[in-house]
Amino acid sequence: MRRSLRLHAFGLAACLLLSCAAAQARPGDTLEVQFRSISVPESTVPAIAQDQAGFIWVATSKGLTRYDGYRLRPIEKEGETRAHRSLGWVRALAPARDGRMWIGTEFMGLMAYDPERDQVQAHGSPLGENGPKAPVRAVAEDAEGAVWMGTVGQGLFRYLPATRRFEAQDLRWQGEPESRVLALRVSRDGRVWAGHWRGLSVRQGGRWQAVAGMGADSPVLALTEAADGRIWLGTQDGRLGVVEAGRIRWVHELKLPVQALAEGEPGQLWVGTKSGLLWVDMASGAIALHLRHDPRRRTGLAGNDISGLLRDNTGTLWLSGYGLGLQRHQQHPALAVRGPDADPASPLAEIDVRVLLRLKNGEVLAPTQKGAIVRLDGRPGAELATLGRWPRERTSVVEALAEAPDASLWMAAGGRLEHRAADGRLLRDWPLDGGRAQRLLLLASGEVLLGMQEGLYRLANEKATALERQHLADGSPLHGGIYALIEDRAQAGMLWVGGQQGMFRGAVGQLAAVPQSPRDSLGNPIIMGLLQAHDGKLWVDTPASGLHRLYAWDEQGRARYERIGERHGTEGVFGGNLHEDAQGRIWSQLNVYDPKTDQLDSIGPAEGADFGTFWFFASTTLQDGSLLFGGSRGLLRVQPERYSMANVKPPLVISAVRADGQTFHPDSLQQGVVLPAGTRTLGVEFAGLDYADPGRLRYQYRLRGLDAPWTQADGSARSPSFGPLKPGHYLLQVRASAQLSGGHMAELELPVELRPLWWQTAWAQMAGALLAVLAIAGWIRWRTRQLRRREAELQALVDERTAELREASLTDTLTGLRNRRYLELRLRDDLRLCSRRFEATALPGPDSDLLLMLLDLDHFKRINDAHGHAAGDAVLVQLAERLRRVFRETDSLVRWGGEEVLVLVRETNRDDAAELAARVCAAVREQPFEIGEGRVLHVTTSVGFVAFPLDPRQPRAWDWHASLGLADSALYAAKANGRDGYVGATSADGLGPSESPRDLEAWRDEQRLSARISGKTVVR
Question: What percent of the chain has pLDDT over 70?
């Protein structure tokens, strides 16, 4: 009775804690917990794991897959059809120390994937190959290499891979045999823990014994070992417990089935249940947070039924489940997003904030686009809680804010400059000219400066009747937008002003343009941000060239700038909102630069900084030194003291090998690839395992022995092919690095050997050479005159054959289309010529554009699977014939890879791109393809295209690789739009490659991009 009352009280307390946690976790009341979803079939993932190489293994409803950050690759056994090759329903995965992955299946027993041979091997079941195979629910490997396998119905087994022998375990509970094992864990001390249908058992000294303290029997569904060595368990009836001093201590009775456990940050336990995710403090047992799926949260939990939790080798947590799919926790210890409030009546229910100001009392004022000024608690530990509205009777949108020494506020809003008391009373206001206010600066003299969309304005003091427009010292007007406005730290009243017309310096009324050294000038004349650091150095941000540092003045008094952004390969603005932290690092909402180490890191959604579109002129510094930036969907808080510069090389792996276009399983990837005699081409697929943001990786590769220079590639070109190959030894070299930290480069090398045919062997060639010499010696006397007469004919023949061989090296052997080597030879001249046309004149003519077009046959893999590769080859040959009829001889048709074709259309008009893409689709669709034996197939294609240069006003803003990446994105968008159609871009206005759309929705919504979508035209 007492125990029942205790459990009842305990459950009531747990429910109260859950209610409190859920209340604390309501959107807007705390900083957001963000996740990124990876698309999986039917959003169903029973199990996840990570192998020694770093791949993430994902069991889906369609079979087992392996994830490299780019795609889910099916892992299958040998078989004639997809159904025969599939491993079916997989419920358990366990990485082995030798690199293998142990796989527990529902119907096929125990299996293992061998990465050396890229093959799945069956290990059977305890009852033999022909015996019934019980569902495998749990798999674990111990330090000796033995595999523990828990089944439902046949019990627990210890499997010895060396002898392929299963040893049954005598697992009992209260004297009765237990045959239903649901969870396994091998702890660091070598003990084996088994969660079964009625409780928890542990193997010590070669014997199994029940763990005391279980109480009521209940299936144990989840086990994990914490950093302190304690074993945590979760049960079907919703209890969460920990093993201490050899017995179970129950921490919570959640009334929710606990299906997965993992340790997050030190001391924090992640608990996956049928109804969301809980964070539990492992020391106190308190529930810190209860996360549930909220459809309003784009970056929240995708579902509530959590089946698996995985902490990968970088410390990042992954979730899987039913209806949830696969998600990666997007969190950085220094970054957090403050989202909108859940209460529709809250003034911050919509959190599009474009101005921020931290007051002296620690509060933060955040004006919204609806006119309200919201008070946030910016003091340490307050997590930016909403305090209410700042009193103001007007609803005009505030554009700029500043706090005076007397705690009064100056603000620009609705075409007026307002001066208000600390309690919100309007003291006085003045009309404004010059468009929108962008910067507001209060000088120690009492003057107020306003940087507007058109010019700089000054209010002499609060008694002045109007604002005065400022001119330069020579009397000329200061035109254009003013984006940066600061007062020199060392000289009171000395200003730095930056904007559309460049940078100016001087006192009020005495501003003059800052002269630049011609050798060390700014990479772009427009100034978007200025920051004077504590050491007096001036930091400058520009739209196209990024971050600069004014490091010296030459003997003529001209400024000398260091182009930091260009040196690090950044594209576009550094961020505009510049701040310095206590370590001297320079921050924006997009990047951080450390002058001491000359390292530049990017920050973004991959690190948990998904707060929508960032806004210029929307940032402030909090009392504790944290930085706050405004965005269209939230506020980004940065705690610089918790940030360490990235210094991790992503693991670089070979994920697939092809010989003559077909999947090839080498005997050993560790020893290298040995290709059979007669092989003409080698194809590989490689990947840098950067799951945070694989799109930022850049690759270099070459096949030594065939290619001398390095080939540059991004994530869309990770599957190169090499050939034709001659017998011999080669070395494949691959490099990978993050775009902004090229110094940290991962490398791999793969030896490749192509064995010769008999007539290509050394002895055969020597014998042939000897016979040829003897024949020539016998003929040379009587052939001399004939050879001299035919010298001219032979020379012509040699020239012809040389040209043919050169042509063959540039042509795809199957389709007769050009190959990548041809494009590399021609591309540079085409791009240079096109760029010169646009740089030479603003209107180069109607047929001056280049058009980059990627097309991919829809569902081509189904053709190979259903009809064989010969049918697929026939389709590709006929596709090449049809494309030659659509395009001109002056256009280049390149087989880009598999069924993908790249077309470079020269001297064309970008406005004709959509019509040309439609003609391509029609040419493929309207006539069936013959695949032999009287059979025909109807095939369609999807097309993505990009005009070059994409931004005619900035011809070099989009280089070849950026344009190719955008065309690839357009191709995937066309497939997402239903296939048999096209998506493309004809021009861009101010859009940078780093902001290019990644999905169909982004293609439709991007305002700075003139897009063409089949069935719909989006022109801006």
Answer: 93
pLDDT per residue over 655-694, tens digit each?
Answer: 899 999 998 988 888 889 999 999 999 999 999 998 888 8
For 425-447, what is the mean pLDDT? 94
What are 927's two structure tokens?
């006539």
What's the alpha-carbon Rg for the chain, to the nearest Å?
A: 34
Taking all residues of the chain, what is their mean pLDDT, rounded to a whole number? 89
Cβ-defined contacts of 349-354 (< 8 Å, 24+): 349/28, 351/28, 351/633, 351/634, 351/635, 352/612, 352/631, 352/632, 352/633, 353/615, 353/618, 353/630, 353/631, 353/635, 354/399, 354/615, 354/617, 354/618, 354/630
- b/e per residue 377-399 (b: at least 16 CB within 10 A): ebbeeebbebeeebebebeebbb
pLDDT at 4 over 50: no
| CA atoms of 548 and 550, how far apart (whole Å) | 7
* Cis status of the peptide bond prior to 543, with omega within 30 of 0: no
**Around Cβ 340, how many Cβ atoms within 10 Å?**
21
pLDDT tens readout for residues 870-883? 999 999 999 999 99
Token digits for 48?
């996840």
Q: Which two tokens stand for residue 328?
A: 């990666």
Structure letter (DSSP) for residue 993: G
Beta strands in 217-297 (DSSP E): 220-225, 231-235, 239-244, 247-253, 258-263, 268-273, 276-281, 287-291
- Residue at 283: amino acid letter: A
Rounded CA-CA distance 691/730 in Å is 30
Q: Is the pLDDT of residue 1018 over 60?
A: no
Contacts of 144 (CB under 8 A, 6+ apart): none
Contact 458, 443 (CB under 8 A): no
Q: Please tell me the distance from the alpha carbon of residue 479 to that of residue 471, in angstroms, as a whole number.
A: 9
- The one-character DSSP state at 22 is H
Q: Give phi and psi for 309, each to the nearest 5.
A: -130, 135
What Cα–Cα distance (Å) separates residue 275 from each residue in 9, 13, 316?
22, 18, 22
Name the token pair of 46.
Answer: 């029973």
Global pTM value: 0.69
Task: Report the residue count for the chain.
Answer: 1020
In sequence order, the 6+-apart residues with CB closer than 8 A to the CB of 409 are 365, 401, 402, 403, 418, 419, 420, 421, 422
Q: Are 966 and 1012 in contact (CB under 8 A)?
A: no
User: pLDDT tens digits, residue range 463-491?
Assistant: 999 999 999 999 998 999 999 999 998 88
Q: Are strands 900-908 and 426-431 parallel, antiparallel or unpaired?
A: unpaired
Contact between residue 133 and residue 107 where contact means Cβ atoms under 8 Å apart: yes
Q: Rounded CA gap, 52 and 66, in Å?
A: 13
> Which stretch of DSSP H or E encloses residue 431?
strand 426-431
CA distance 688 to 736: 6
CA angle 303, 306, 312 (to 5 degrees): 110
* pLDDT (average), residues 747-761: 89
Query: pLDDT-derived band of residue 740, with 50, 70 and 90 as boundaries?
Result: very low
pLDDT tens-digit series, residues 924-967: 999 999 999 889 999 999 999 999 998 888 888 888 899 999 99
CA dist 537 and 775 (Å) reads 81
Please give the structure tokens belonging to residue 213: 């303290």
Structure tokens at 991: 């859009």
Instruction: For residues 197 and 243, give the distance between their C-alpha atoms in angstroms, rounded to a whole number.
Output: 18
CA nearest neighbour of 645 among 592, 691, 589: 592
Q: Do 585 and 592 form a contact (C-beta atoms < 8 A)?
A: yes
Which CA distances in Å does 781 have to 252, 776, 789, 793?
103, 9, 14, 20
Spell out the SS3 assignment of 112-165: EEECCCCEEEEEECCCCCCCCCCCEEEEEECCCCCEEEEEECCCEEEEECCCCE
